[in-house]
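quick one before i forget lol
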Amino acid sequence: MMWKKIFAVLLTLAFLAVPYTGNAKSLWVDRSHSIFADKKARNVGDILTIVISESTTQTATKSRSNEKTASIGLDAGVGIFGFLGRASSAGVNDSFEAEGSANDTNRYSGRITVTVVEVLPNDNMIIEGTQSIWQNRDEHKITLRGIIRRDDVLMDNTVPSYKVADATIKFDGKGPLNAKQRQGILTQIFNFLF
C-alpha cells in the first residue's frame, strides 16, 4: 500500500516537471463573430442603416390691397395763369389688389445604408452615404450626411432619420424621364426676366 502512494507522488511530480507548451490566452475573448456580440456601428468604417421617414407641410396665403385717392382744386388764375379761367379741379385714383396661396406637402420614406466617416471626441459619429438606383436609363439617387449619437443606434443597427443632426438628405435624378419633368431653357429665361 505504501508503494502505491509513493508511485502516485512520483507520477504527480513527473507531470509537474514536464514544461507546459500550451498558448496563453486572455480571459477577454474576441466575440465579434459570436451571435451574442453587439453588432452596432461604433468605429470609422462601420456601416449602419438610416430609416428615412420625413414629411413636411407648408401652407401660405397672402392677400394685399392698396388704394390711394387724391384731388386738387384750383381757383381762377391771375396774371400769367389767366388761361385757367374758371375754377377747375384734378383728381388721381390709384388702387392695387393681389391674392395668392400655396400648399406644399412632401413625404419621403426609404432606407439608405451609410458609413461612419469620423468619430468625434464626444462619441458622436459623422455618417455619409449614397444610394443610386438605375431603372430604364433613369437614375434615382439619395445622398445623406449627418451626425448621430451612439446611443441612438438601435439593436438592429438602424437609426431613424429624425435622430440625425445636421442632416442633409438629397433626392436627385437624371435621365430621360427626369429631364421631361424640368422646365425648358426658354421658360427658365422668361421666368427669370419676368
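fyi The two ends are 117 Å apart (CA to CA).
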